[in-house]
Amino acid sequence: MFTNPKIAIIGAGPSGLTLANLLQQQNILFAVYEFETVANERNQGGTLDLHPESGQLALREAGLYDEFKKYARPEGDALKIVNPAGTVLWDENKGDAPLTFETAGRPEIDRIDLRNILLNSLKPDVVHWGKKLLHVEQGQGDNKYDLHFADGIEKGFDLVVGADGAWSKVRPFLTDVKPFYSGVSFIEMWALDVEERYPWLSAFIGAGSCFTFDEGRVLISQRNGNGSIRVYAGLRQDETWTKDCGIDWTKPEIARMDLVDRYYNDYPDDLKRIILESKDELIPRTLYMLPIGTRWDPHPGVTLMGDAAHLMTPFAGVGVNVAMLDALELTRAIIAHKDEREGTFDLAAAIQNYESSMFERTKHNTQTTWNRMQQSFSRGGSEAMANMMQAFHRGAYVLDHRVENLSMLH
Which residue ranges does the record assign to the FAD-binding domain (predicted)? Predict the structure, then answer.
């Protein structure tokens, strides 16, 4: 039992910062330790949609929903599906009016805007930058934990929450399980200032996302809130494909043409043009995941959230939403295991309660993601997605999720 528990959150991504805000709402003290030396030191990725039952719910309970609405783009929920022959199977840009918060269930928000909302709402000095965690060790005393950073050791924590992503340094304290290659690699490309510089691309993609799914390959385009579009050319290839394929990714202009010639040459001109007009950045990425159903034995003062706990590919569009729901459920578990008379917290019971629910919930999400990825990289994948959308709008299907932004999975 702890009266004023010493809590460390490792990682200032969506799950770690959501947890920080929720704990702050409950006047529970914590410290966030982040590898980056300053906020937004590296690119935070593109756009993602937040779902009412998870990401949006966490923001509501953190008192940040109104701030979210200032930056969210309901029109970005519009979806366009084009098959490999160039036939438009589904297009939500054709409606009489753009989507609004009342008509779009899952507004888009740029990752950098979401992170800034979460960061700016925290009290000063609770986030410690430039803290590269090496490992977690059992400390002296009952259920105390020490954090070994590159620049020294922080001792005596009662609760360590690993929200430090795919290659978590907290995870090895709990389990030997590591991410494995999903079988899919992506080439991420950007087009900036699309309204002025690439008007055709802007008009073709529309207000939200444009998907083409095919046997062994996909083409995904997503509008961002800063006037840019990010394009992801995905291929089912070996893990070392980006290094061994013979395409020189350091020469983007030639690389884009080689990519089209080798892997998308039979596509119609419009689809090839999506790749060729995305001229402002090119980043090869390999997608990893944790085994479906990953779990570990509960430990009294150490747990995981988000990608550290259940890394998955983006093909069900749930990664960040599940991570933010992790933060909400862990906070609720901590509060539920507070003795109001004594003012003490039973952190061991809180962790066990949180993890038992999280394991079951994320097993379902990871399996759904895996199934959706297999469908996306199959012949007729575009038609299957369009049929699903048509059934959903007829009320004959409960839509799970769409594809979430890919750029953080590397």
Answer: 7-339
Spatial CA neighbour of 269 closest among 88, 84, 94, 91 = 84
Task: Determine how many CB atoms are found less than 10 A away from the CB of residue 40.
Answer: 12
Residue with token string 């000095």: 125
Q: What angle do CA 11, 16, 21 make, to 5 degrees?
A: 135
Domains and CATH numbers, the chain: 7-72+107-178+291-377 (3.50.50.60), 77-105+180-289+381-409 (3.30.9)
pLDDT in tens, 216-246: 999 999 999 989 999 999 999 999 999 999 9
The closest alpha carbon to 404, from 255, 236, 279, 230, belongs to 230
**31-33 and 7-10: which strand pairing?**
parallel
Six-digit token string for 58:
């966490």
Q: How far, in Å, CA of 404 to CA of 407, rounded?
A: 9
292: left (phi over 0), alpha (psi -120 to 50) or beta: beta
Residue 251 in 3-state DSSP? coil
Sign of CA dihedral 215, 217, 219, 224: positive
Q: Within 10 Å of residue 286's Cβ, how many Cβ atoms?
A: 19
- Report whether 89 contacts 386 (CB < 8 A): yes
Q: pLDDT tens for residues 34-58?
A: 999 988 777 778 899 999 999 999 9
Three-state secondary structure call for residue 410: coil
Judged by DSSP in three states, 275 sits in helix
Residue 206 makes CB contacts below 8 A (sequence gap 6+) with 78, 80, 91, 92, 93, 223
Place of tokens 């009016």: 97
